[in-house]
Structure formats: C-alpha cells, structure tokens
Specification:
- This protein has 14 helices and six strands.
- It has 338 residues and is of the alpha/beta class.
C-alpha cells in the first residue's frame, strides 16, 4: 500500500529533521527496479478523513493540529512555527494522514490476503490525545480499532513493535484493553521512556546501547514466538522500524542490514506458520540507506515464500485495486467497502 503523497518535500525544510522524509518513494522505486511491483498492483492509499481519525483521536487533539507550533513540537521541526497552518496542513500533515489511511486500508487487506505492507505508517508515539516523535496520527491504534469494529471475526490483536524506540502511543491507547497483546523490544536508554505506557506491554524486552545482531535476533525469535504462543491473535501488527541500524543517530543499536532483513523474516515466518494475518508498517529509520534495506527485506520475504505473487494475484485483486484507487471517500469507507 502506497501513495506518492507519502513523501514530504517543502522548500528543504524537511532536511531539518534527521528522518528521510522521502524514503517511502525510494522503497517503491527499488521494488519496481527489481520488478517486484508495478503501478498496477500497488494499492493506492487514501487520506484518512476527520471522521476516520475521530474513531481514536479526540476533537480537542485534532483541533490542536491547526496551530503550527503544535505541529512543530510533534515533528521536531522548529521552523514550522513561522509557517501558516494551511501550508503545514498541506505539506506535512496531509502526507501523514495519507500514510495513516494506508495503514487502515492495509489492515483489512492483511485479513483478506494473509499479509499486507504499508510502505509508510508506524506512528507509534502518537496516542488518541497526544502526538510526539514525528508521529501526529495514531495509525496503529486506528487500524486495529477499525478491524475490531468493522470486520467480523477479528477480536484479538498482537502488536510486535521492533522499532528502536518504545511504542508509547499505542500502549497508552490500549492500556487495560485485554483484546490487544503488546510485545515491545526497544533501547530503554532513549526517547520516550514513558513509564506509564509501559504498563500496557505484555512482553517487554529492553535493550542496551550497541546491541548487535546475534543477541538481537535471538531475542526477536524467542519473544515473538513466545508472544504468539501465549495468545493467538486474529491479526498481527508488525512495527518494523529500521532505526535499529548501526549508526542510526537516534536508535543507539548496532544491527546490520542483514540483521534487519533476518528480523523481518523471523516475524513473518512466525505469522505464516500459525496462519495469522500480518500487517507491516515501516516506522522509524533515520539514515538515507534505510530505504534500500526495507526494499531488500521485502524482496527477501518474497524469496522465502512469505509474501508474493500467490498472495496478491488471487481472483478479485484487480477489482479491489481498481475500487480502492478510483472510488471516492475516506480510508475508513474504503476499509468498509473492501
């Protein structure tokens, strides 16, 4: 799932944040070069509407995004303060809303097809009433709540969050909700250090500075298997941040590109072995080379038979893609129609 509108470009201001705000388009370009996808078999994401967002977000929070200084704080781009909010909405928030709509759509596609990847999304620091850490919309929470409310047979979800940072947004949203099992593996020395949100984590794996492949992959396998054995969900939401990469300025871990590819394979294999649908979002990753690594990982998943043509070329997909990309309405209405 992707839309060219995912990418954030505006007079170079995007370069003031370490996040590569064009990485999503680069992933798609790499996958096209490898002939894994074409424009015809990409599901085009639809921007989440205000009605969609209100499924999780408070009106007060959404209204606060009409103030540029609030968006500047959330995205950590101070110069946004001086821009008219209409420009901030168009150039910054609309791409994030489109990625959010993509996650909602991908959730339903994962249930129907066994897997789906939103090339964007993974805004795991945002909760229903508060944003932060470049996360303005709670796409993970939204995707799960749409599934619970609108898809028959989906009543339990497991979040496997392997971004380098704690996923405090979805944790705050699902604190006390027994339908959602959260596994979170993160560098405990860095942002956000949200002790209140940690109460929602059912399987917490805290990593130290400089954790390397061997220890990391052993823990990924042990705890992802353990989480899925403890509670069998109807859907897995996999937050596959690449900010665990060695040299990342914010992640503080030392995982190789090959380690990231293997990590994703471990999680997808665990899901496939159990016949559980999986939705992957790409989340954090703050180096220019992360786009290539994400593409390589997706290609490896195909090579390993964990995703690919057999899953996407079933009867009816072409009609589905046509419906999603040509019909009008919000991401939520697309979710229902699918």
């Amino acid at each position: 799932v992707y839309h060219p509108g995912y990418n954030i470009t505006f007079m170079g201001l995007e370069k003031l944040h370490p996040f590569d705000s064009g990485k999503w388009g680069k992933v798609i370009r790499f996958l096209k070069e490898e002939q894994f996808i074409t424009d015809e078999n990409i599901v085009e994401a639809r921007e989440a509407s205000e009605e969609d967002l209100l499924v999780v977000h408070t009106k007060r929070y959404l209204c606060s995004l009409k103030w540029s200084f609030v968006v500047a704080t959330i995205t950590e781009i101070p110069l946004l303060v001086i821009l008219p909010n209409c420009l901030v909405q168009q150039k910054v928030l609309r791409p994030l809303r489109t990625q959010t709509g993509g996650t909602i759509m991908a959730g339903k596609l994962a249930v129907e097809r066994g897997w789906a990847i939103n090339v964007g999304g993974g805004f795991h620091h945002c909760s229903g009433d508060k944003g932060g850490g470049f996360c303005a919309y709670a796409d993970i929470t939204l995707a799960i709540k749409f599934l619970f409310e609108r898809v028959e047979g989906i009543s339990r979800a497991t979040i496997i969050d392997l971004d380098a940072h704690q996923g405090n947004g979805h944790e705050r949203d699902f604190l006390g909700d027994t339908r959602v099992f959260i596994m979170d593996m993160y560098n405990h020395n860095i942002y956000p250090g949200d002790e209140y949100a940690k109460r929602a984590i059912k399987r917490k794996v805290e990593l130290d500075w400089g954790t390397e492949d061997s220890e990391y992959l052993q823990k990924v396998e042990l705890h992802s298997e353990g989480a899925l054995n403890e509670v069998r969900p109807d859907i897995i939401v996999y937050n596959a941040g690449t900010d665990i990469l060695d040299g990342d300025p914010l992640g503080g871990l030392s995982i190789s590109p090959q380690g990231i590819v293997k990590r994703d394979e471990i999680v997808f294999r665990a899901a496939k072995q159990r016949g559980i649908p999986i939705l992957m979002v790409t989340s954090g990753g703050y180096q220019k080379k992360t786009a290539r690594i994400i593409a390589d990982s997706i290609l490896n998943l195909r090579q390993q038979g964990l995703i690919g043509a057999k899953a996407t070329e079933r009867e009816g997909l072409s009609q589905l893609v046509t419906h999603l990309t040509q019909s009008s309405g919000s991401a939520g209405s697309a979710h229902t129609a699918v």
